[in-house]
Amino acid sequence: MSTTTSWKPGDRRPATAPIIRVDQAGEFGAIRIYAGQLAIMGDRHPIAREIAGMALQEEKHRAYFDRQLAERRVRPTLLSPFWNVAGFALGAVTAAIGPEAAMACTAAVETEIDKHYADQLVELGDADPELSEAITEFQAEELEHRDTALAHGAERAPAYPLMSAVIRLGCRVAIATSQRI
Fold it and tell me: What average pLDDT does the segment 65-88 reach?
């Protein structure tokens, strides 16, 4: 159900299947990260309400990509069981370190997702306006999550530069593998 009004014979079409596959996996991973954080924090910390709100937005994003998987007949990543466990573990471990570490995790993930979505929008150009519109909307919300995390002390987390770099590298690996596998 892709709209490709600007495509002409001979033009390179962007491969939307890997975009949809990886974005659905990413939103699923984000939901699992927040679930891990909330499992440790419960509602005892004021930031838990913020985390729950971000998780709801991620659920909305995932629902969109779930629909796109079905409508466009794109297979999901085979790595979902791994992202289920890895996402939850990342969220739980960072929350166990403390609220600032949980926010450092969010800031790192959302920084990488912003770059990822920006690259996808360039790749799509105007070949798939529906998908581009959704990605643009979700990118803005992911930036709000990053800004929320920074405002709640992400940069005060223990070993923030190292933690951020490791999480961002993990995100890049997850993106690269989920597009293909």
Answer: 89
